[in-house]
Amino acid sequence: MYGSNDHSGADRWEKACGSCHKDQVGRMASSQMFTNAGMIAQIQATWEDERPGVAFAAQNGHQFVPDGSELAQVSVAGLDNLSGELYRKFCSRCHLASADNDPTSAGHAAGCAACHFPYGEGDTYQGTDRTVRGQGPHSATHVLRGLPPMGACERCHHRSGRTALTFQGLQDGNNALVPTRRGRPGPVTGSDGRSFTHIAPNVHFEAGMECIDCHTSREVMGDGYAHAGMEGQLEIRCEDCHGDGTRRPQAVKSARESDAPVRESRQYARPMAPGVRAVLTGKGRPYSNVFESDGRVVLATKRTGRLLPSPVITGTPAHTIAGHGRLECSACHSRAVPQCYGCHTSYDKRESSWDFVKDEDAAGGFAETEDVRTLYPFPLAVDGRGRIAPVTPGCQTFVTVIEADGHHSKNESVARYRGKQQMRFAPFYAHNTGRRAVGCSECHGNPTFLGFGQYVVENGAIRSTLLCERNPRKALDGFLSMEAGRVVSYAAISRAGARPLDHDEVLGVLAVNLCLVCHERNDDPIYRARLDYGALDDSLHRRLLADRR
Question: What is the pTM of this model?
Answer without folding.
Answer: 0.91
